[in-house]
Amino acid sequence: MYLNRKKFLEMTAAMAGSTVMASAMPWFSVFNNPAPFGMGASDRVRVGVIGVGSRGLTLLYNLLELKNRMNLEIAAVCDNYEPHYERAKEVMNGDVAAYKDFREMIEKTELDAVVIATPLHEHAHQTIECMRAGIHVFCEKAMARTLDDVKEMYDAHLETEKIMLIGHQRLFNPVYLQAMEKIERGDIGPITMLRGWWHRNTPWVFYDDTGGRGTALDRQRNWRFYDEYSAGMLTELGSHHFQVANWVLGEVPVSVMGAGSINHFDDGREVYDNFGLIFKYPNGVHFTYDCITSNKHNGMQVQVLGNDGTIELESNMWFEEFPAEPPAVQQLIDDITDDENATIPIGGATWIPNAPIRLGGRYISPDYELNDTLLYMEGFLNFVRKGSAPEKLTIEGYNASIWTLLAEEAAKTGKEVKAPDRYIL
Amino acid sequence: MSKTVHHSYYSMGTRFHLMLPGVDEDYGFRIFQKVKNELNRVEKKLSRFLPQSDIYRLNIAAKRHSAKVDAELFDILKACKLCHEITGGAFDPTLRPLYEYQQKMVGAFVPDELFYDLKDKLGFEKVQLDEDNSVVRFGSHMLEIDLGGFGKGYALEKVKNILENSSLKSAFVSFGESSVLAFGNHPAGGPWKIGMNNYLKPGKTVTEFEVSGGSVSTSSNFYLSDDGRLENHSHIINPKTGEIDSNQVAVSVSARSPLLAEMLSTAFLSMSDDEIEDVVNQYDEVSAAKADYSSGSPVITRYEKIEIAEDISV
User: Fold this and answer.
1) Spatial distance between the Cα atoms of B268 and B259, rounded to a whole number of angstroms
2) Of A81, A216, A248, B217, which has the fewest CB atoms closer than 10 Å, so is most exposed?
3) ipTM reported for the complex, 2 dp
4) Does residue B78 carry a pLDDT above 90?
5) What are phi and psi of B205, to 5 degrees?
């Protein structure tokens, strides 16, 4: 069920005055109040893409789509891996400045913004150098490999006053927008727990022809397997859901505990192929989370559990704990309580709800298939045009990354880990 | 005074209520969990809305070629075929495309050539069942199966199995209020008394069935909202005319089998009194009632099996 743009804009306009939009997701208002985009060359936003591997190519395609309706120029692409470098030039039909060194790119090509989709350990210095060069940054998640790098990126963003947004695309997903409204309205009652998981059955090998684990090429291409470059599924998958938990609760955790191991894909990789975590939040609310790459039965989910209902964010569903009782059912229960066998006035055609129900739940949003990455890119370009983005959006990415790396520490040490003061904003 | 464990949730597009009088709360919850798992399994199998369901896939595959289905789905289709035959075609789960065709029309529906052409291409008799190989083929590319008039009865049949295999003596199940299962006796003694709700006086009944270990299913083009408003819900196709049935009639069928009650209540809505009598007379423990509101007040017709006295003369 595709949510077309007209409906999306109607929805965001209708919610513009709501508390939830103002407090939890003010960035959605940019779609109804976009930056004035003149069509002249001076109004054109010039964007460069650093890293055009699997994710970077997707972002490039999204930018190309936006080019059809925004005054945008994809002025440069950059990748130090020859096949990706060549592929990006081909995608752009050669009509782009191509580089293998991002420093050369930002020095030689005038840019308003960059999109960074390089391996995790490259994010910090690339983001910081771009912002210091006066360029706004959209950087893929997670932010960086170390806590200090995450903080340094944030500090550089404040110091340079350049936009720094982190690619947690659920922040721009209309289903999440409507789910947050439901939660705010009290449809599921007080939130008492969150549960999440990301389960897949795949060795997660991006490149097969690298000569195996440990080779220089494998370290470059399958960087997600190496502790020096990545925390594996924690940073590359889990961080998305950790961001969602913080966002839904409007808080950051008090602490995190966890454990992880390599129990199936023991092929020389250095990162867990499974882990389990418990995040403690204020008011006694917990978020339990597990990730596995050797079983896909449960798929991917974030559940928000309230006293009156459950929201399943990844599947766009909400479930009521207590469906309304029809009058005949109420009467029947009263009669049984009173030990009376009276006639039950129940027979009639099937009761139907005012919205479709599937497998015990209702859709949060009846129309939901909208490309949230595209919306995020569109939002980013509008913010670039305006010169600033909501700080809360940047902080969402920051806190997700901090708590991802603290979770890694908890899993590695087996200790309950709290955030050191210097990382608390 | 007896405490009742009561659980409810949404299933198959409506609400499901399970009431277990006088049972331990934990045991009652375990029964509910079993029931819920089974209902979800059945919905995943039979829903035409879910792309992974067996019916969804069959509706695509059997138009193009012979489609192998599992034993459960094949038995379901055989049950549909049997009911189609005993009701003279009145039970027909292939007519959904006619409903959708009429829904697209603006203003009063007037049958046109395309409508008659579509009607000719539908009908359960065009569903070919190869019993030796559990293979199904549709004799028309327009045909598709919608088990909306079947699913709740089938699910209640499964619920009945769960209850029979438990230590429960008594239970009451309401599936969207249109399909109910009365298991055992009422805790106050005697059979459960299940009334047809009076559309004009909600909360009052026009007639009732006494049921112990059986089911009552009701079909109608209207339903009552919880606050007593009568809502139009014309969704059943009259197989004779192909048009959406708009009679101001409700039909209830009581049967030991929830599935039989479900299928017959849908079929009886478009059958004459004589035709209904003929079907009722073929079964033990099946009875029916029709409430006709077209005159402004309910006119009730009951259908019971005619017992023929054994000839003992010598």
Assistant:
1) 14
2) A216
3) 0.83
4) yes
5) -115, 155
